Amino acid sequence: MERIKTIVVVGHENSGSFHLFRTILNNFPEADFTLVVTTGLYYRRTLIGSIWKLLKESSVLFCAVRFAELVRYRLGRHTMRCECKRRGIRVITTRDINAPEIIAGLKVIRPDLLVSIYTMHIYRSDVLAIPRFGAIGCHPSIFPNYRGLEVFFWAMANNEGTTGVSIFEIARKVDAGRVLREQVLQIRPEQTMNDVYRMVTECAGRLLVAAIHDVDKDQVTYRTPEGAGQYYPMPTREAVRRLLRSGKRFF
Predict the structure, then answer these.
(1) Please, which residues have CB within 8 angstroms of residue 42's CB and are 6 or more apart in sequence?
(2) Cys-Cys with 184: which of 93, 164, 171, 222 at CB 3.0–4.6 Å?
(3) Residue 47 pLDDT > 70, yes or no?
(4) Distance (Å, rounded) from C-alpha 215 to C-alpha 217?
(5) pLDDT at 49 exceeding the cut of 80
(6) Hey, what domains does the chain have and what are their CATH numbers?
(7) The whole model's pTM is what?
(8) Are 104 and 111 in contact (CB under 8 A)?
(9) Distance between CA atoms of 84 and 48, rounded to whole angstroms?
(10) Which residues contact 97 (CB under 8 A, 6 or more apart)?
């Protein structure tokens, strides 16, 4: 690598984050990595507060499906923390990526690049100012459309024929940065929600590697998304019923 020597990866412990983290590690073995594991379901909410919000606003069935996947992942031996232990990578755990102690720790590390993978934490300007070449993240849609949460589900519930992945520059406004890389993906009729999740995650891994190379070589070409797009919350009960009525399945 030419310019990037130190990378901080920020992510929540789940199967998608693990795939992305391992993909980045395997493609940049010469870089010095730090993993920041973000905890909690919603940014800066307690576990009880997060569960209460989910019960009020989201589908219990959808939450149960995703929770079962999370439990299965965390009971396995292939987690981001396990990968870090095996490779000797430092790990920081936080409930708030913008906490003063996290900011102080990142300033000591002095990362060249911050890479955000599948976390619901919101980055403030103090954190974004630390990495020398900025911060990038991945999102399972083509910006500005399908901003928000669990949008691979929403694309299926809305009977879209395509979805996609955007690798974007993290800005102060959520899901509003310039796009570095993107790819449209076809949703096939036989695909389950888990199939689509794996498809967008695998694509995000490839695009993140390409985007990091772009930043490293100072060869980034940006696209600024136009229009407001749509924002989606956690899947609602009505949306889950619509998905199931259409014949689509979770797995």
Answers:
(1) 49, 50, 53, 120
(2) 164
(3) no
(4) 5
(5) no
(6) 6-245 (3.40.50.170)
(7) 0.94
(8) no
(9) 29
(10) 10, 36, 38, 119, 121, 122, 123, 127
